[in-house]
Amino acid sequence: MAARTNAAGAPRRRRRFSLLTREDKIVLGFLIGVPAVIHIALVWVPTISSILLSFTSWSGIGGLETIRFVGVDNYERLATVYPPFWPALQHNLIWLGVFLFVATPIGMFMAVLLDKNIRGSRVYQSALYLPFVLSLAVIGFIWQLQYAPEEGFINNVLGTNTERNLISWLGDRDLNLWAVLVAASWRHVGYIMVIYLAGLKGVDPSLREAAMIDGASERQIFFRVVFPVLRPVNIVVLVITIIDSLRAFDIVYVINRGRNGLELLSVLVTQNILGEASRIGFGSAIAVVLLVISLGPILFYLTRTYEEPS
Amino acid sequence: MTAGAEERTVPRRAVATRRRLRPGRIALHAFLIVTSLVWLFPILWALYTSFRPYSETAQLGYVSVAQSLTLDNYVHAWDQAKIPMRFFNTMVIVIPALVIVLLLASAIGFALSRFSFRFNVFLLMLFTAGNLLPPQVIITPLFRMYLALPLPAPLSDNGVWYDQYLGIIAIQVAFQLGFATFVLSNYMKALPKELTEAALVDGASVLRTFWQVILPLSRPPLAALASLQFTWMYNDFFWALVLMRTGDKRPVTTGLNDLQGLFFSDNNLLAAGAMIIALPTLIVFLMFQRQFVRGLTLGTTKG
Predict the structure, then answer these.
(1) What is the C-alpha separation between B273 and B279, in angstroms, rounded?
(2) Are residues A284 and B267, on separate chains, in Cβ contact within 8 Å?
(3) A113 and B128 in contact by Cβ < 8 A?
(4) Contacts of residue B31 in chain A, CB cutoff 8 Å?
(5) Is B70 helix (H, G, I), strand (E, B) or coil?
(6) What's domain B76-300's architecture?
(7) What are the pLDDT digits (tens) for A117-126?
(8) Where are the domains of chain B?
(9) CATH no. of A74-306
(10) Is A156 an 8 Å CB contact of chain B?
(11) CA nearest B197: which of B206, B207, B188, B186?
């Protein structure tokens, strides 16, 4: 964008800059410099450091001079001799799958229903959206009241709260990921709904009317007319859904610190810092795996947002 | 224009649907009411549990009709979990972080949207990408940086950034700057060009143009961001978990984790604790719902 305006707008630009005094230029330098330095120093310097450290071995005890370059050793060990890695990666992918194919479509469906000019739409919206304002840690607490084996609501209603037939929703490693995903999706649906509602409000009503006159059914109108028009919103939702599944952490950490069936990449990174043996290079290698996966949606989003002619 | 057109078509469509689609509408409302209740249920259940005495639920079970309701659980949670202290910790972090984020994001948003530099798009991309990174990608080196970087005495009681309020404020600011800058620069870009040009021609300095022309006009996105960022920063669990060690300095959301041990066997107390912690965000949401939702949608559209 800047490149395009430069050619045509060069003389104007020079004129505008002549309006700026020396102080003005210094002020502008600060207005840009201070936030940029803070953001780069605390977000991008650690990101690059994660990549560099992932090729090293460092216990963190000695100074920086005790860092040893070990090549791709960390990655090799990650893939071969570190038991939680593959389960964690698998859990992240399941998380993504559930968000993408269940929670996000439900959010979209609710937005379509609520977009039809109905009385009390705002009340319904608030109810669906409410979980999104709660912290994931609080959500973990609230759902423990549902899932608790003997005292939880679900087991009491199902009658599975006695010694003999107890269902341990959060303790059983074949069940707990799905139980947690119900709670996480509960929050995700409202978020997606709000974004789609805003998108649907922006759809030109005459498009819909024209299709209706042509005799299209509601379903046809949505899939053939509205959905394609919502392309920019779809991109945002796709990116948010992927990133949120990679960021998942708080809820599993509150429930059981992300062990026993609830391992996630984010948890493994954290365990390598908070655990007794701090393996910085190794922890960074897991972080880089997370980074590489998130770079896909991030770059996709950036190219869509900044390269498209506007 | 579009609003007028919409108003004109609305009554016609409403009349038509009232005549034709009545059973459909009723089914739709029934579906929406049921869904809303299902959605609210886990929260309402926690609320219900929080008002019941432990002795009663121990005797009758949790799925039972309450015979007495009490605020005792709230009183106990409030005292035992040292909630006032934890709320104070949260505010020490969130209020400065919120003010600084809005100020810095307005500053850079203003500079990048009203003036053209060669690196504009690059910087905006960097901020947008930074806002999308999972925090765990940066935490390992950040943790080491916080342990190594000196911070002088009045700001830190151990000489470094680790385990300090300022450390948490700094990373909250740095991380949230991405989203706030994206939203504000988009909004400011849409303001008429003539505003800044006229002010500068009239001899106003850049700083004055920012402070007295652009910033007052940006009140709507600032209000939207304030309610959204308050909620996000308040809800943060991760930064304080890793970068803060002293339990008594941790904010309320992270403190929740410590409470769990305390409330281990008492679901009623756990429910009351969860409700107390959720309350500030619920209040902000109910009071500023419109801004809250707009903040999100501003951040997801190109502006």
Answers:
(1) 10
(2) no
(3) no
(4) 113
(5) coil
(6) Orthogonal Bundle (1.10)
(7) 888 888 999 9
(8) 2-50, 76-300
(9) 1.10.3720.10
(10) yes
(11) B206
